Amino acid sequence: MLYQELLDSCRDRFDEFFQNVPIFHNQFRWNEYNNACYQLMYSEYLEDSIATVKELKSKIPELTDLCKQCGSFFIPARNKSLPKYDVIMGQQHEEALMKYLSQKLNTEVCRADLEDRSMPDCKVLKSDGTVAAYFEVKFHGAPFVCALQKTGRYCYEGSATLDYKKIEKQLGIIEGLEAPVFYVHWIEYPCLKGVFYETSDQVKQYIAEQHETFEREKREGDEMKSAKAVYLKKMYSPLLQMKDFESFVTELSALL
User: Residues 72-119: pLDDT tens digits?
Assistant: First the structure.
């Protein structure tokens, strides 16, 4: 499985980066339990038959205890945020994914937003230096534990957020780009783990249909940002409409 390869490739980087930061005990780790979650939460279900958490607990005994640990760990920390640290942490994941894809595709994958921060994070280059594709990376290390109460969706399926206004603005900018744009969700929950992606057209359609959005409460750290950089309105991309990491690598390879 490619996601296991990705974790192996960046384990030393993350072990060093998070050595003084409290993270959930199985973050950036993969075992047979996570494989079972991946199969039952994603691979084996269609969009119209999303497994309930109750059903999943009956099939994965370890999930009951892990859900309790997950809530105890993430709910108290939900409203805390350190903007500078969040940016640096996001860059760690972008760089790890770019390095892995560069080696996997045998091409250059680099930043695309150095001159214009509104551009997608990364770009994949062809051998002649032209752009084969752009992609935005969203790392999700904390599930929205209260998702069912707040949005009516299960936490594992409805926690992959996009900043509504930021993405709406970005979609207008990327219309003029000749290469396709993908939104990549790197999910590292205690249960579900993997890299999933959706196209910019999927995101555009989801916004146009005004699907579930949620306006989060302000957090510690928001006052440290400029008003324009604080995005409270969130949209939650549907997990089962996304494709998997293997498909992403295959699609990028075909574009080179």
Answer: 999 886 555 555 667 788 899 999 999 999 999 999 999 999 988 889
pTM flag (> 0.70): yes
Which is it for strands 181-188 and 131-140: parallel, antiparallel or unpaired? parallel
CA distance 176 to 42: 33
**Residue 229: which pLDDT band, with cuts at 50, 70 and 90?**
very low
Dig out the tokens for 92 from the structure. Answer: 């760690």
The three-state secondary structure class of 91 is helix
Cβ atoms of 138 and 162 within 8 Å: the answer is yes
What distance in Å separates the CA atoms of residue 154 and residue 145, rounded to the nearest whole number? Answer: 8
The residue among 99, 138, 137, 109 whose CA lies nearest residue 7 is 99
| Burial zone of 72 (CB within 10 Å; 0-12 exposed, 13-18 middle, 19+ buried) | exposed
Whole-number Cα distances in Å, 151 to 58, 75, 144:
24, 16, 10
d(CA 168, CA 231): 12
The residue whose two tokens read 């695309």 is 112
208 half-sphere exposure, CB direction, 13 A CA radius: 8
Q: Is 185 helix (H, G, I), strand (E, B) or coil?
A: strand
CA dihedral 229, 230, 232, 237 (to 10 degrees): 40
